[in-house]
Amino acid sequence: MADKQQPLPAFNVIGLTRQYGEGAAAVHALQGIDLQIPASALVVLLGPSGSGKSTLLNIMGGLDHASSGECWFFDQALHQFSEKALSLYRRQNVGFVFQFYNLMPSLTARENVELVTEIADSPMAADEALALVGLDHRLDHFPAQLSGGEQQRVAIARAIAKNPTLLLCDEPTGALDSATGRTVLKVLQQVNQQLGTTVLIVTHAAATAEMADRVIHFADGKIREVIENPAPVPAEQIVW
Ligand SMILES: Nc1ncnc2c1ncn2[C@@H]1O[C@H](COP(=O)(O)OP(=O)(O)OP(=O)(O)O)[C@@H](O)[C@H]1O
């Protein structure tokens, strides 16, 4: 009998596949993924280019559908969701951070974050979100007046301002030098620790694994290895 005290994981992924195209041209991006991610964990996904990391992240984020298998978010069966239900799921639960910040150049840092807080159900104030990422002194700056790392921190503030349960980050430090990347990782770790947000980071910067509770290694559309890290290090100590 199931242990009633056992909390549901944030994600329970069972036999997930994703195929692009048909026949001889088909790409089997995910070839049967089984995975559990506990709520409030910080998880890093590593693996060679084309191994399926972004494909899995996109399915977990409700941006894409699996070809077969199950993807549970707590008790919600994402694999059975309509486009409309996925859209609501994304709006209510998911913050996204990508390699490129996608800020509106004609809006200030505060206004970029307000774009999200105006349509979210229970947002934090834009100024509060920007203070959390250490940008309370840059509220009225435009993206062109900010460094790459600062722009990425605005993008993170925008993602967390709607108080998401889940923060999905695809190459968040990909466009940054290592020192600046470290400040961004520190913010992600802080969001995880202070807000309890489940954070998933896809990256090529293997040293990022040191700050994770759990590291998932991909190869050829499969999970090669999952490593639990009993003692994640503070992001500021990471060197790559
Ligand atoms: N929309 C698509 N149409 C066709 N093939 C796709 C599509 N998206 C991804 N693929 C293919 O699926 C496979 C997995 O891609 P995915 O982007 O998930 O890999 P990744 O591990 O995130 O790679 P990277 O580290 O380079 O971002 C690759 O072979 C890729 O070319």
Automatic annotation (TrEMBL):
Domain named ABC transporter is located at: 11-239
- Domain of life the protein comes from: Bacteria
Q: In its keyword annotation, does this UniProt entry include Nucleotide-binding?
A: yes
Which Gene3D superfamilies does the record cross-reference, listed alphabetically?
A: P-loop containing nucleotide triphosphate hydrolases
Keywords assigned by UniProt, alphabetized: ATP-binding, Nucleotide-binding, Transport
Recorded GO molecular functions are: ATP binding; ATP hydrolysis activity; transmembrane transporter activity
Q: Which InterPro entries match?
A: AAA+_ATPase, ABC_transporter-like_ATP-bd, ABC_transporter-like_CS, MacB-like_ATP-bd, P-loop_NTPase
- Kindly state one GO CC term assigned in the UniProt record: transmembrane transporter complex
Q: Does the keyword Transmembrane helix apply?
A: no
Give the family from UniProt. Answer: Belongs to the ABC transporter superfamily. Macrolide exporter (TC 3.A.1.122) family.
Write the protein's name.
ABC transporter ATP-binding protein
